[in-house]
Amino acid sequence: MAMKESAFAGTEEEISNPRGLPINSTYAVNPADNITGYKSFQAGSFKFHRDEYFCYVTTPTAVHTMPADAFLRALMRDVAWGFFYGTVNFDQVFGTTNYYGEVDMFMGATNEAYTSAGRDFVERFKADKLMDVFKKMVSDWTNEGYDPFAAPMETGVPWGIKNGDNDEAVSRERVTARRMVGLPGDTPVRTDANGYPVNRMFDDVPQDQPEVHAEPGFEHEVSAYNLFGYLSRSDVTWNPSVCSVVKDSLFCPTSEEYILPVEHGNDRCEWFIQLTDEITWNVKDGATGRPRAVINMKAGDCCCMPADIRHQGFSAKRSMLLVWENGSPKIPELIRQGLAPDVAVEF
């Protein structure tokens, strides 16, 4: 993996915080609206409220409107992923960028029209404090019967005035195997008995498990499981979960249906291996949002997404995707120094 020379000159703080943003510590949860029943929220100069159909983000430079379903699906991923790697664009205007302990929240910072007009706005927060606000927001704004993790045909609707909640769905723990699914003491294999039935679109996936005959003394070291059977029982979409770990190499398979709720701008190279069916990826420039490519991945295809783009996937039929992540703890420091490569190989 070729390293690029640093594009920055400055201290570590200037590189990881090029705008010199102070840490904002203003947060508020406001009482429920008398008409809609929803609470409103504030983090720094960002204010959030919703009504029957829409969610609104207000900053000193703009007011941005998103449909409630799109906003909640994106918010749910940002919460579940802990702000994930790099930038999570809720759409082409609003999103967050993870600096691992600190988070930038922005309006228009990755949108060429906003930046050229000087209407972009960014504030920085402690990650745990902003996460607390986001968790409260997704809990309050998610009504009974609606699951922002599910495919549209598998859940209720997010519309209307406040009507109960679905905290069981929005508080799911992301699967993070320490070594591999199925090993003793690690994340268990999914079964009917532990609450994971086969998804409606994967009825044809074999459910038999491999037989493992380990030599005495190696029972806790040798294991195998049916990955396709495991993914066929996923109760969520677009939620890569760590299912095996080899040093810094993380295999994060997932099942995909409908649209990836965010435009993900990773801060490191990210490999995709299409296991079944197909996904179409819209690829844009990470900084400006300009279109760069459209990729149609079919079963067996493999691609590497560079670190300077953002991508959003579309899957007409529920498919299986293996996301291969580099979890090296050295990468955030390389990013701060401007040394992290944008591509996996330079020719």
Automatic annotation (TrEMBL):
<feature type="region of interest" description="Disordered">
    <location>
        <begin position="1"/>
        <end position="20"/>
    </location>
</feature>
<dbReference type="InterPro" id="IPR040908">
    <property type="entry name" value="PnpCD_PnpD_N"/>
</dbReference>
<dbReference type="InterPro" id="IPR011051">
    <property type="entry name" value="RmlC_Cupin_sf"/>
</dbReference>
<feature type="domain" description="Hydroquinone 1,2-dioxygenase large subunit N-terminal">
    <location>
        <begin position="32"/>
        <end position="175"/>
    </location>
</feature>
<dbReference type="Pfam" id="PF18191">
    <property type="entry name" value="PnpCD_PnpD_N"/>
</dbReference>
<protein>
    <recommendedName>
        <fullName>Hydroquinone 1,2-dioxygenase large subunit N-terminal domain-containing protein</fullName>
    </recommendedName>
</protein>
